[in-house]
């Protein structure tokens, strides 16, 4: 699954929902949490069925970000399930048990309507969740992890500075990768979405660390994320040259070999395969 760009869309905004499928994002996150006023949450939840269908028209994967309060969370999750959303962005996930409780609530609904299990992307937003990230990643429905930098800093009594947040973000990232799950986010936070060059640099750095994609709140950022989290033409050319040379070496009965003055062995060949798979250019 390729999810380079995940665009947040308020589930209460008919105007934004109507245009979301035109934005080119790999995924749309219909938000029932922070962007929806308390007195609009019920109406936004009730409108999910139509909203999911609308934002999916361009082929985007659809998530719903659910509220963290237990009563709202279960109602949001069930509504998203019935509306046909692929998955949930589970705000303020603190433990694996919270996810298991949601799964137990959804399982009979899924059987009743005959749909696949709803996927989860937990948002880890406090210090305790960061320390439990690998256990959270092991939950069967989890397809990826993301860290909420501002909330993590608040939970630590810290300022949300890059040096403060780099370690917890990397801890969440490593937990996701250790369990074979996707990892979303950037190590540097760029608050002003108009600073596209800074966003591009931050996304390329995250990609170099192995992050798979990132979320955004403004459509202008989507093309930056799609480009930054995709292999560059130079990287694709490198990967093809490695695979071609590996085939020749294998035919000659050699394992490791030298390509352009660099030793190439199994991990590098695997990395080249990964690059071509990400590019959709793997034979």
Automatic annotation (TrEMBL):
The terms under GO molecular function for this entry are:
lyase activity; magnesium ion binding
GO BP: any one term: oxaloacetate metabolic process
Q: Which Pfam families match?
A: HpcH_HpaI
Q: Which residues form a coiled coil?
A: none
**Classification via InterPro entries:** Aldolase/citrate-lyase_domain, Citrate_lyase_beta/mcl1/mcl2, Pyrv/PenolPyrv_kinase-like_dom, Pyrv_kinase-like_dom_sf
Cofactor(s) needed, names only, are: Mg(2+)
Enumerate the UniProt keywords alphabetically: Lyase, Magnesium, Metal-binding, Plasmid
Q: Where does Mg(2+) bind?
A: 125, 151
UniProt-listed SUPFAM superfamilies? Phosphoenolpyruvate/pyruvate domain
Using the record's annotation, list all stretches that form the HpcH/HpaI aldolase/citrate lyase domain. Answer: 4-219
The residues listed in the UniProt record as binding substrate, with positions renumbered to this chain, are: 65, 125
The family database entries (PANTHER family) matched by this protein are listed as:
CITRATE LYASE SUBUNIT BETA, LYASE BETA SUBUNIT, PUTATIVE (AFU_ORTHOLOGUE AFUA_4G13030)-RELATED
Q: Which family does it belong to?
A: Belongs to the HpcH/HpaI aldolase family.
Q: What is this protein identified as?
A: CoA ester lyase
């Amino acid at each position: 699954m390729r999810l380079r760009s995940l665009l947040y869309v308020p589930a209460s905004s008919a105007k934004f929902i109507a245009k979301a499928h035109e934005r080119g994002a790999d995924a749309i996150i219909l938000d029932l949490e922070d962007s929806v006023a308390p007195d609009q949450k019920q109406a936004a939840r009730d409108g999910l069925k139509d909203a999911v269908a609308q934002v999916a028209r361009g082929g985007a994967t659809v998530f719903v970000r659910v509220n963290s309060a237990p009563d709202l969370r279960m109602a949001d999750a069930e509504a998203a399930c019935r509306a046909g959303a692929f998955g949930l962005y589970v705000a303020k996930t603190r433990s694996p048990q919270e996810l298991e409780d949601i799964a137990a609530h959804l399982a009979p609904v899924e059987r009743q309507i005959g749909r696949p299990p709803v996927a989860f992307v937990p948002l880890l937003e406090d210090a305790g969740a960061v320390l439990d990230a690998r256990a959270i990643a092991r939950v069967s429905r989890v397809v990826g992890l993301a860290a909420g930098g501002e909330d993590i800093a608040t939970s630590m009594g810290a300022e949300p500075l890059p040096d403060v947040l780099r370690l917890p973000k990397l801890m969440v990232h490593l937990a996701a990768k250790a369990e074979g799950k996707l990892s979303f986010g950037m190590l540097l936070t760029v608050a002003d979405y108009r600073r596209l060059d800074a966003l591009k640099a931050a996304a390329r750095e995250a990609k170099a660390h192995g992050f798979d994609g990132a979320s955004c709140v403004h459509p202008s950022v989507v093309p930056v994320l799609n480009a930054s989290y995709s292999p560059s033409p130079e990287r694709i050319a490198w990967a093809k040259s490695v695979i071609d040379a590996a085939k020749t070496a294998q035919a000659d009965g050699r394992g490791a070999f030298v390509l352009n003055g660099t030793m190439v062995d199994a991990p590098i060949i695997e990395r080249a395969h990964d690059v071509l798979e990400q590019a959709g250019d793997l034979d």
